[in-house]
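ARCHIVE CARD
CATEGORY: sequence design from structure
SOURCE FIELD: tokenized fold
FIELD CONTENT:
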């Protein structure tokens, strides 16, 4: 579940708190409470209950339910938070009501009142918020499943794409006459790409080392076909063990470079792939020649959607007049729930 609050979440909470404040004011008026109780009790209760929601959504749930299933820690820290903030709320109400401090409850009674003090104030908006998050998650999961099926069909179509075959067969035909040894290598690399695509068509993520190997085969074909028009470099700044990325994502990023950047013949288009512990980045020079190829927008949106399900991190893009840079998070399955 995505525990970060969206704009609509804040709007929902604001509406709930406005309604809650209105009914509390009516209740205070009917009970004949003093003005100081309006000015202290209601704002303190709203601020503390909202603080509880933020602590649960941004710290307690992500650390002790999402990342690790530490239910005991979750209950313990939840009680500590409710008790601590509830104690502040109770003391503020006790003071604003002009109560006799000699009648302040003993420690055990004070502990119980502190625990339950904010349970009602925070429980209702928190419950509504979680219900909203749950149904949004269900809807998102359904849409991702549907889109994944469409992606699988698109991947299957790309495996027999006539343009891809036509271009590579033309290159192969030229190589057979001019360089038979390189022609053999070209056939081998092409067959490895097809074999990989077929074997991994149902896999959501693949090992980084396998994806890099696929990319190396793909760049070999491109450099054989276009010569010095493209220069691909891979910088490996981390070990590849226990690291994954969405299947075919690196090849997709490299295909994007080739589709939308055509060399003028005077300047090589440099493509740098940098792999660190947490990110895989593709940085390329932009060509001044406008491409008539299909936009990459759909593929990028598909990749973004897959990451929403697979990782808490988002794709990062930097697009300038001279260069394009895209970074995708590396997934470490051992750290996933």
């Amino acid at each position: 579940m995505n525990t970060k609050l969206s704009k609509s979440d804040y709007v929902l909470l604001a509406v709930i708190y406005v309604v809650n404040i209105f009914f509390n004011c009516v209740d205070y008026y009917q009970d004949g409470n003093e003005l100081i109780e309006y000015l202290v009790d209601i704002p303190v209760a709203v601020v503390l209950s909202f603080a509880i929601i933020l602590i649960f959504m941004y710290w307690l749930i992500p650390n002790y339910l999402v990342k690790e299933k530490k239910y005991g820690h979750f209950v313990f820290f939840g009680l500590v938070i409710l008790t601590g903030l509830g104690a502040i709320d109770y003391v503020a109400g006790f003071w604003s009501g002009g109560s006799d401090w000699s009648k302040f409850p003993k420690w055990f009674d004070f502990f119980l009142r502190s625990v339950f003090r904010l349970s009602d104030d925070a429980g209702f908006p928190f419950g509504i918020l979680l219900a909203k998050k749950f149904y949004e998650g269900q809807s998102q999961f359904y849409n991702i499943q549907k889109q994944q099926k469409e992606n699988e069909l698109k991947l299957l179509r790309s495996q027999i794409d006539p343009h891809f075959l036509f271009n590579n067969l033309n290159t192969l035909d030229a190589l057979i006459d001019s360089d038979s040894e390189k022609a053999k290598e070209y056939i081998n690399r092409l067959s490895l790409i097809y074999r990989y695509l077929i074997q991994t068509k149902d896999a959501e993520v693949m090992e980084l080392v396998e994806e890099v190997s696929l990319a190396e085969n793909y760049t070999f074909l491109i450099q054989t076909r276009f010569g010095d028009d493209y220069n691909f470099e891979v910088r490996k700044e981390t070990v590849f063990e226990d690291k994954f990325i969405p299947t075919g994502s690196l090849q997709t990023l490299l295909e994007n470079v080739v589709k939308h950047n055509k060399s003028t013949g005077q300047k090589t288009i440099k493509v740098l792939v940098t792999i660190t512990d947490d990110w895989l980045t593709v940085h390329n020079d932009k060509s001044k020649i406008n491409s008539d190829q299909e936009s990459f927008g759909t593929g990028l949106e598909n990749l973004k959607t897959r990451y929403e399900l697979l990782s808490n991190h988002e794709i990062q893009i930097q697009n300038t007049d001279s260069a394009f840079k895209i970074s995708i998070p590396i997934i470490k399955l051992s750290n996933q729930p």
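CARD ANNOTATION: The first strand starts at residue 205 and ends at 207. The first helix runs from residue 7 to 31.
SHELF: design records, drawer C
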